[in-house]
Amino acid sequence: MTVALTLADIAQITGGEVRGDESVTVTRVAAMDTAGEGDITFLTNAKYAKHLAESQASAVMLKAAEAELCSTNAIVVADPYIAYAKVAQALDTSPAPASSIAPSAVIATDAVLGQDVCIGANAVIESGVELGDGVVIGANCFVGKGAKLGAHTKLWSNVSIYHDVVIGEHCLVQANTVIGSDGFGYANEKGEWVKIPQVGTVRIGNRVEIGSCTSIDRGALDDTVIEDNVILDNQLQIAHNVHIGYGTAMAGGTVVAGSTKIGKYCQIGGAAVINGHIEIVDGVVITGMAMVMRSITDKGLYSSGIPLQTNKEWRKTAARVHRIDDMNKRLKSLEKTLTQQQD
């Protein structure tokens, strides 16, 4: 199925202004260098404005400052990237995870299903589950006892939602993600591991999106909490009792240890490692591959790790790192000698 929008439609969606023929129809968003007739593209960086004259797109979304350079129809918007996101949503034809209730789905007799719920093949919905209006459950999903999913939330295939997990409205969970599995809680008795039952749960707010193959552990005593409007990438590990604040974004491969609190509107780069039992304040940006060992109490940009070097350079750097303690002792000795001489 193809969705077609006129430029007048797009102007309404984006809050922009059409400069050109507003009856022109587009069916796809494309990159500027590959866009052709029937496509709409966008310009987010002024340094690429020189390519506007060559664009074969039916229309371009851009800022007013670059509009005069455009050789085709233009839609002037405040933020072309936001406009691109909204138009891409409007033109999106991705299929739903399920379109009906499959005969092979196993649904407990006391599960409560809202209106227009869809459940894919071989999915299991256990006792006490509540699914809000418009919830879509993909094939082979498991929703455990007492779990609650808010209206219009979607699970792609093979997602596992453990017992008593609560997920809000308009959430999206990609394939193979696990929410509510046991946190990593054990005591050691003379070399033998004694499992600690994880009796908390996971509470997820509204408009949260979670990537594929991500694991979010249930709390040990209290709950693991993810607030509204959070976006989590693929292959994250969120440990027990972690609390993630409103509007935070975390890129793929990040690991967050237990009982850490991350504030609102934080941005955490891919493959970051965050220690447990610490707190990160609102508005912190952590670059990729960073290792966060202590609480962050001031808003700002933080980085760690060693940038890529040739192997020869890296070996020298590593050798110097191993000598830091000795160098520090020698420096302190020199400082002490200088102080004595000055006295």
Automatic annotation (TrEMBL):
It is an enzyme of class 2 (transferase). Pfam families: Hexapep (PF00132), LpxD (PF04613). Its EC number is 2.3.1.191. PROSITE patterns: HEXAPEP_TRANSFERASES (PS00101). Residues 24-89 form the UDP-3-O-[3-hydroxymyristoyl] glucosamine N-acyltransferase non-repeat region domain. It comes from the Bacteria. InterPro entries: Hexapep, Hexapep_transf_CS, LpxD, Trimer_LpxA-like_sf, UDP_GlcNAc_AcTrfase_non-rep. The keyword Cell cycle does not apply. The keyword Electron transport does not apply. Signal peptide: none annotated. Keywords: Acyltransferase, Lipid A biosynthesis, Lipid biosynthesis, Lipid metabolism, Repeat, Transferase. It catalyses: a UDP-3-O-[(3R)-3-hydroxyacyl]-alpha-D-glucosamine + a (3R)-hydroxyacyl-[ACP] = a UDP-2-N,3-O-bis[(3R)-3-hydroxyacyl]-alpha-D-glucosamine + holo-[ACP] + H(+). GO terms for molecular function: UDP-3-O-[(3R)-3-hydroxyacyl]-glucosamine N-acyltransferase activity. Pathway: Bacterial outer membrane biogenesis; LPS lipid A biosynthesis. The active site is at residue 240. Homotrimer. Belongs to the transferase hexapeptide repeat family. LpxD subfamily. Catalyzes the N-acylation of UDP-3-O-acylglucosamine using 3-hydroxyacyl-ACP as the acyl donor. Is involved in the biosynthesis of lipid A, a phosphorylated glycolipid that anchors the lipopolysaccharide to the outer membrane of the cell. HAMAP family: LpxD (MF_00523). This is UDP-3-O-acylglucosamine N-acyltransferase. It comes from Vibrio hippocampi. The gene is lpxD.
